[in-house]
Design brief:
The protein has 186 residues and is of the alpha/beta class. Helices cover 30% and strands 21% of the residues. The strands form 2 sheets. Strands 3-7-6-4-5 form a 5-stranded parallel β-sheet. The protein is globular.
Length: 186
């Protein structure tokens, strides 16, 4: 099922400049709207069309457009925004489809047991390779950085991330690639 935003997810006032490393040009970096749809500004739930009623058993999905080499940065910005809005660090799981997040690579250097003990403690944001998503516990918010890897890895990562997300799944990546991969995986 392709990820097509039903309504604007990114507000102009929430965007900040970002320098694209390859070109040196400043480009806006989209920011997620933290929390479930009911926490966002807009008409009260009773004023929303009936066709858009939420099913609380399925997490809300937000797509943050980002180039392949900017997906990890977009995921980091999403984490920062969630924490700034009051979300507990232990509520957030970040998965990467390509190169590991630097935190995960560092923590894995101390061994698998210590790395997964931090996951189980749920004291902080946890970063993992999407290939091991099945091993991760459910968290209220799951962020997937589509920062490389094969299309097959992304096809497997997105449903696994959806199964782990309690209320919100944020996907950071190229919308055309994400939609193409999802279309191929369905």
């Amino acid at each position: 099922m392709p990820l097509i935003p039903e309504e604007p997810q990114i507000h102009e006032s929430a965007q900040g400049p970002r320098v694209a490393p390859a070109t040196g040009r400043t480009t806006p970096t989209p920011r997620p709207v933290p929390g479930p749809r009911s926490a966002r500004p807009g008409p009260p739930p009773a004023a929303r069309p009936a066709a858009r009623t939420e099913n609380r058993s399925v997490p809300q999905i937000q797509l943050i457009p980002a180039p392949l080499d900017g997906a990890l940065d977009a995921a980091e910005e999403a984490v920062d925004m969630l924490l700034d809005s009051g979300r507990a660090p232990g509520d957030v799981l970040v998965l990467t489809t390509g190169e590991q997040h630097p935190w995960a690579a560092h923590e894995l250097s101390f061994g698998e047991a210590a790395y997964w003990a931090q996951h189980d403690a749920r004291d902080d944001v946890f970063y993992a390779d999407a290939a091991v998503a099945e091993r991760a516990a459910t968290r209220p918010v799951v962020i997937v950085a589509v920062n490389g890897g094969t299309d097959d890895a992304t096809v497997r990562a997105l449903p696994a991330a959806m199964a782990r997300a309690g209320v919100l799944l944020i996907v950071c990546g190229d919308p055309q690639r994400v939609n193409a991969v999802l279309g191929a995986g369905v």
